[in-house]
Amino acid sequence: MPTPPLAGGTAGPTHLRPLLDTVLTALHDGAARRDGPLPAGGPDTVTHRTDRATGPLIPDHGTGAHHALRTLVTALTEGAADPAHPHCAAHLHTPPLAVAAAADLAASALNPSMDSWDQAPAASALEASLTAALAAEIYPHAPHPDALVTTGGTEANQLALLLARERHGPVQTICAANAHHSIGRAAWILGLPAPVVIPAHTGTMDLPALREALIRHEGPLLVTATAGTTDTGHIDPLDAIADLTAAHGAELHIDAAYGGPLLFSPTHRHLVHGLQRAHSVTLDLHKLGWQPASAGILAVPHHQDLAVLHHHAPYLNAGDDTDAGLPDLLGRSLRTTRRPDALKIAVTLQALGRDGLADLIDRTLAAAHQLADLITATPHLELYERPTISTVLFRPTGADDTTVATIRRTLLTRGHAVLGRARTDHRLWLKATLLNPHTTPEDLRRLTTLVTHAVTGLREGSTPR
Fold it and tell me: Span of the secretion signal (predicted)?
């Protein structure tokens, strides 16, 4: 067998072009076979079908590039939950833009490793420009804001707690019951005290409870607020929280992994007013930024806030190299080898511009309100409340929690729809997290019809096909 060709260099594109044609055909064929938002049959059926289609993954003799790509990509696509389908709406699982996916291909072909300048000369310059630009969006009045590229909200939140610990020692975190699970996990990983969890009775942080916690606990204290919860999309009262933290000498981190990109929409940016008052902010552009995962950001108001992350490894950032002007990249992440995720983000922002990104955001939030209107107008469905961002909670009128859970699993097993679940107001709700800006009112009407037909099937003792 000849030595397989490489993706890079001047010959790389020539080798890639026919392979990409095979991949694109397999993506099409797999989606056509699936013919829905996810494969029908449930876990056992999907596993059996996938294993049968792919065959042995480590054969004695290779099958060749085109056969392997055609077989595995088709099988993976046929068995995928496709966030580009309007009825795949369970999670903060975005359908990536084609332009971002194309940029990600270039990143894979070039394979810069963002841990030393000599592995990523232009990529390191691009990342520095992108992170400075994104940080300036969050901190428009700070003289030298900065940001790091992360794998997502979980890593960004962990870094935020780490920075606070390095500034002040073992900080006590205070968060509301609506906070993302990564806050408690980060405290555990970093050896910090378990977070003080205060109520969020209305879905957002309770301000009197925060005031009491700030009085009761001695510093150093770090309050973590949320701009876009995973269950309901609620946004904490950021300005009021910033007022309280400042008055009591505490620091503030805002997890805006979901809601942060609202900054780019003139129509909706008021929802996240107050972000600029935080000591650190998490942003996640593989949510309301339509990027392939991963595309997380941690922003800080002062470049120097990141200095504590500096790490020395002589083979990557020798002191004399740094003194000679080679950029030191190790302090830009806790990871060593990492992909140039800045490329796809930068390509997307340049391709769409502020108005293009705002249009995607506005369309998506409008679809959420259209779904809420449909649910309100459907006699057998109950709406939890009007959506804050693009998460809509609803349930069949009069159904118990077991019925709600069964309906969700029925739709999953049949391959009809991917809806999430959320427990709030002491009840279980179906959760539609809309992130597809191409979703139409007819798509939404069909989704509500699928739910009502599933309810009818359960009540009649059968499962609709």
Answer: none
Query: 312 and 439 in one domain?
Result: no
The whole-angstrom separation of Cα 176 and Cα 373 is 30
The token duo for 31 is: 């989606």
pLDDT at 462: 56
The last residue of one of the domains, among 327, 350, 373, is: 350
**Shared-domain flag, residues 371 and 344:** no
Residue 220 tokens read as: 């150093």
Residue 292 is given by DSSP the state P
Is the pLDDT at 268 greater than 50? The verdict is yes
- Confidence band of 465 (pLDDT split at 50, 70, 90): very low
Decide: 381 and 52 in contact? Cβ < 8 Å. no
Residues 360 and 395 in one domain: yes
* The token pair that represents 210 in the structure block: 């925060």
Encode burial over 308-324: b for 16+ CB neighbours within 10 A, e otherwise: ebeeeeeebbeeebeee
66 burial class (0-12, 13-18, 19+ CB within 10 angstroms)?
Answer: middle
Residues 6+ apart with CB under 8 A from 303: 144, 145, 146
Q: Count how many residues are written for the chain.
A: 465
Q: Which pair of structure tokens corresponds to residue 142?
A: 């700070």
> Are residues 299 and 266 both part of a single domain?
yes
Task: Return the pLDDT at 176.
Answer: 98
Please answer whether residues 54 and 72 qualify as being in contact, where contact means their C-beta atoms are separated by less than 8 angstroms.
Answer: yes
Give a yes or no: residue 99 inside a domain: no
User: What does the pLDDT average to over 310-316?
Assistant: 96
Residue 189, pLDDT score: 98
Rounded mean pLDDT of 124-136?
98
In tens, the pLDDT along 368-421 reads 999 999 999 999 999 999 999 999 999 999 999 999 999 999 999 999 999 999
pLDDT at 464 over 70: no
416 and 452 part of one domain: yes
337 in the same domain as 441: no
* Number of other CB atoms surrounding residue 297 within 10 Å: 30
Residue entry with tokens 């470049």: 303
Query: The dihedral of CA 214, 217, 218, 223: what is its sign?
Result: negative
Range of the domain at 67: 12-81
Clarify whether residues 306 and 420 are in a common domain: no
pTM for this one?
0.96
Q: What DSSP line would sit under 240-277, residue for residue?
A: HHHHHHHHTT-EEEEEETTTGGGGG-TTTGGGGTTGGG
Q: Is residue 93 part of a domain?
A: no
- Structural domains in the chain (count): 3
Residue-level pLDDT at 359:
98
What secondary structure letter does DSSP report for 163?
H
